[in-house]
Recover the amino acids of this structure.
């Protein structure tokens, strides 16, 4: 009996997120139709704006780079059994470290200096998320809530410092830190308008996949996440594994902040708080916390973000309209989990009823 | 008389190949308290769930007041006047006692006239044996009071048959006396019949009129409490029909060697914050199987979890070959400690990972299966295939998720992982729970072989047959302590039964018979 259904988990792993995304697009179409816009035009623009030409591809890839890293901040702790949603805080602190460390010492010029600063950014993010993991393991604090609240604290610290002691007196309307020295910035790949952060994102996703799949430490982490009781029976140090996974995830998000500062903003300012940390949650869930799947999903969601401005210019929709699409997608992704393991066993009428229920629930 | 008469006629229930209930014919007389005894997995819960419509029996019938009655759902049972108090709490923690009681009545009007409801509830409270503050919230109530609230919720519905699943497990003896006394009074006044699942013999002899014992899905004894004794009931629960076959291995074994595992003054906290293991002392020698007998809920589970590292220890020392033992990975490896936990899928496997991954859990981080921090999956997969062959694990392949396997095959996979290689100490809990005959024989054979090879085995089991068959020495655990020990060849069932049934409560100090 189980044999004939062996393909089903794999098929479901692809079908559920794809169906959820399709459902989100349909709902988004209804949403814009209610606003008096043509949904077909909106759908077309979404894809043209994301993947229509070289310019939109560059825009898409530019945005997907930080998403890959913030998605890892959700995916790695998730494999250790924790739901961390505070990647935004780690990203912001990473950006702060990147722009703030040169106040403390003068980093060597060139790529060594950049690497040094990026290491600082990663360390800042790692500490922040590891703190949430530590609170969970040793104090029993719910890590989902604590990581979210820690993110608010991080943002407050960021604003306090950027608008206070670190403020560049020349930045008048838009409080910012002093710009990063020219030689420390991260440039574009060749002649394309895509910075090297994309390479960082892809490489770290691949590295994370190798770590989880083939390393002793990564496997131990998966065991601790899959069944803590079995892990303890095996004598594995579950608490340490969990906190390490959190630290690695936080380091990725911190790196995302550092790269955004060094490649896009050139200084730390409020524009860094753009929600990449929160979209990363969505990316990781759609990718089922699989680091390799994070790459294409981040590109897709980066594309949706890139298309937002096109929707604004062509159809007069507000820039934030894409957020509605992402919201629909997130709710449906979470709702689709209730169908896991049952998608192919539900009798047809029930299957229809359930999907309607899921749609109704989403609205 | 409003009290119901309940009978079941040859009730059977199967879960796959496992027979949970086997032709059980139970008779609960109206206006009596009927106790249902049996070890975990004996089928007590299945039986009452069939009666309250939670399960549908495969064969047999339920008779209410002598008439065959179909009970397809819990709603039907409620309409018939059958109330059930579950083992876990079903109160809403954040709502007041009054609100909880109103909810329990089922129909809540669109607008609640609280004054009328309160008056009604206060009038009801006056008729009940327990007093609870209507404005208190279960969050603030002690567990004993929550249990009373659960019972009140059912009494409010004026049940004609009240079924309780271990109602006193969270109560102090004084509270238990209060609750059970009130229920008995209600039954004897003819208001309702009471069927209660319990583990405690004291409550049976003090409060029940009739008692029935289930064992492995069969009704093994039923009758008046006046005609029974704790010893007889314990024997019925643990089984005595089967004569333990004399195993060849047992005759060949030499006297046990030196003390290997030494436990002194071990204290462990239970799930509800009570001390489950209270100063336990035990020694296990090499080449010896020590069987731990006891009625479940006397700390055996917490004891084993603390030994294997799944539960923190409060106090006490555990030494292995003279060295302290904390069940860390390095210690497990250097001292060669392996473990067969109960419910292996829950306690010893990662359900979402493959059979090969799970078989690798002991050795994935050491040579020759790891190199420079990387796991050599190909080697592990090859060995998993060999084990699947050797241990006869029925699976789609080593890459199948282990939770897709049947219970027996999960246990075989765990057995392969834990028993391959030479172990010096084996910590085993209920190893054959829910398994079929062939698997049982095989697992027992492997445990005996390990013992004959010089391994020390600590075996906790709820099945006295199994303990008598395998052990060299049997100790009885009761109230979180070892209260009695004896060489297995001298063990007498009625004596073990008496100790399990709580004889130590009257005896001054633990006794030991000369080995």
């Amino acid at each position: 009996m189980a044999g004939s259904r062996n393909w089903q988990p794999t098929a479901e792993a692809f079908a559920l997120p794809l169906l959820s995304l399709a459902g989100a697009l349909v709902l988004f179409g209804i949403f814009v139709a209610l606003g008096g816009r043509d949904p077909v035009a909106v759908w077309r623009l979404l894809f043209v704006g994301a993947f229509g030409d070289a310019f939109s591809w560059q825009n898409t890839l530019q945005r997907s780079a930080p998403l890959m890293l913030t998605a890892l901040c959700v995916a790695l702790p998730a494999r250790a059994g924790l739901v961390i949603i505070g990647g935004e805080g780690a990203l912001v602190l990473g950006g702060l470290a990147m722009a703030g460390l040169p106040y403390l010492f003068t980093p060597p010029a060139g790529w060594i200096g950049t690497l040094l600063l990026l290491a600082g950014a990663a360390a800042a993010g790692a500490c922040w998320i590891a703190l949430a993991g530590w609170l969970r393991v040793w104090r029993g604090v719910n890590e989902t809530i604590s990581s979210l609240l820690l993110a608010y604290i991080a943002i407050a610290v960021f604003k306090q410092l950027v608008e206070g002691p670190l403020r560049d007196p020349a930045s008048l309307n838009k409080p910012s830190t002093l710009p990063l020295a020219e030689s420390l910035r991260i440039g574009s790949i060749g002649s394309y308008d895509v910075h090297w952060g994309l390479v960082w994102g892809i490489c770290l996703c691949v590295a994370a996949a190798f770590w989880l799949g083939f390393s002793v430490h990564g496997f131990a982490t998966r065991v601790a996440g899959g069944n803590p009781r079995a892990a303890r029976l095996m004598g594995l140090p579950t608490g340490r594994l969990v906190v390490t996974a959190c630290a690695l995830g936080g380091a990725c998000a911190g790196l995302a902040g550092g790269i955004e500062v060094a490649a896009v903003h050139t200084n730390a300012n409020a524009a860094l708080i753009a929600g990449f940390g929160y979209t990363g949650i969505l990316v990781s869930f759609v990718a089922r916390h699989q680091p390799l799947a994070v790459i294409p999903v981040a590109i897709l969601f980066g594309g949706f973000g890139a298309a937002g401005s096109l929707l604004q210019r062509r159809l007069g929709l507000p820039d934030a309209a894409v957020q509605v699409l992402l919201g629909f997608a997130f709710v449906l992704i979470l709702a689709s989990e209730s169908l896991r393991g049952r998608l192919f066993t539900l009798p047809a009428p029930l299957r229809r009823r359930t999907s309607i229920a899921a749609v109704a629930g989403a609205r | 008389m409003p009290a119901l008469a309940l009978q079941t006629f040859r009730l059977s229930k199967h879960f796959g190949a496992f027979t949970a209930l086997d032709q059980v014919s139970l008779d609960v007389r109206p206006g009596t308290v009927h106790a249902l005894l049996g070890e975990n997995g004996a089928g007590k819960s299945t039986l009452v769930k069939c009666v309250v419509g939670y399960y549908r029996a495969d064969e047999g019938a339920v008779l209410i007041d002598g008439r065959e009655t179909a009970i397809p759902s819990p709603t039907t049972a409620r309409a018939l006047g059958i109330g059930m108090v579950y083992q876990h709490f079903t109160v809403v923690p954040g709502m007041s006692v009054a609100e909880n009681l109103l909810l329990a009545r089922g129909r809540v009007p669109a607008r609640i006239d609280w004054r009328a409801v309160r008056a009604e509830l206060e009038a009801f409270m006056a008729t009940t044996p327990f007093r609870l503050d209507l404005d208190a919230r279960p969050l603030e109530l002690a567990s004993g009071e929550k249990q009373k609230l659960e019972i009140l919720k059912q009494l409010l519905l004026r049940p004609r048959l009240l079924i309780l699943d271990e109602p006193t497990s969270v109560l102090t003896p004084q509270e238990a006396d209060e609750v059970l006394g009130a229920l008995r009074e209600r039954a004897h006044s003819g208001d309702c019949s009471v069927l209660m699942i319990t583990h405690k013999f004291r409550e049976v002899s003090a409060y029940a009129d009739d008692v029935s014992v289930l064992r492995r899905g069969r009704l093994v004894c039923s009758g008046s409490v006046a005609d029974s004794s704790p010893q007889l009931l314990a024997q019925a629960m643990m089984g005595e029909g089967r004569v333990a076959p004399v195993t060849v291995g047992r005759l060949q074994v030499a006297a046990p060697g030196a003390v290997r595992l030494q436990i002194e003054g071990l204290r462990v906290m239970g799930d509800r914050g009570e001390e489950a293991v209270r100063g336990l002392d035990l020694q296990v020698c090499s080449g010896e199987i020590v069987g731990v007998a006891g009625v479940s809920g006397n700390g055996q589970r917490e004891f084993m979890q603390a030994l294997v590292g799944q539960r923190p220890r409060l106090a006490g020392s555990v030494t292995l070959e003279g060295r302290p033992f904390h069940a860390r990975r390095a210690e497990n490896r250097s001292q060669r400690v392996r473990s067969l936990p109960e419910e292996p899928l829950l306690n010893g496997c990662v359900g979402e990972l493959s059979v090969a991954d799970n078989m690798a859990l002991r050795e994935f981080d050491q040579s020759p299966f790891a190199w420079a921090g990387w796991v050599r999956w190909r080697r592990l997969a090859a060995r998993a295939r060999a084990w699947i062959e050797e241990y006869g694990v029925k699976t789609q392949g080593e890459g199948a998720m282990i939770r897709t396997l049947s219970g027996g095959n999960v246990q075989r996979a765990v057995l392969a992982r834990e028993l391959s290689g030479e172990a010096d100490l084996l910590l085993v809990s209920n190893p054959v729970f829910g398994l079929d005959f062939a698997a049982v024989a095989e697992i027992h054979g492997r445990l005996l072989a390990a013992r004959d090879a010089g391994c020390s085995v600590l075996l906790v089991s709820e099945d006295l047959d199994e303990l008598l068959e395998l052990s060299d020495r049997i100790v009885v655990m009761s109230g979180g302590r070892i209260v009695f020990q004896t060489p297995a060849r001298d063990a007498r069932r009625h004596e073990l039964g008496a100790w399990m049934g709580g004889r130590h409560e009257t005896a001054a100090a633990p006794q030991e018979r000369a080995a």
User: Anything to note?
Assistant: The interface with chain B takes residues 2-3, 6, 9, 214-217, 219-220, 222-223, 226-227, 229-230, 232-237 of chain A (CB under 8 Å).
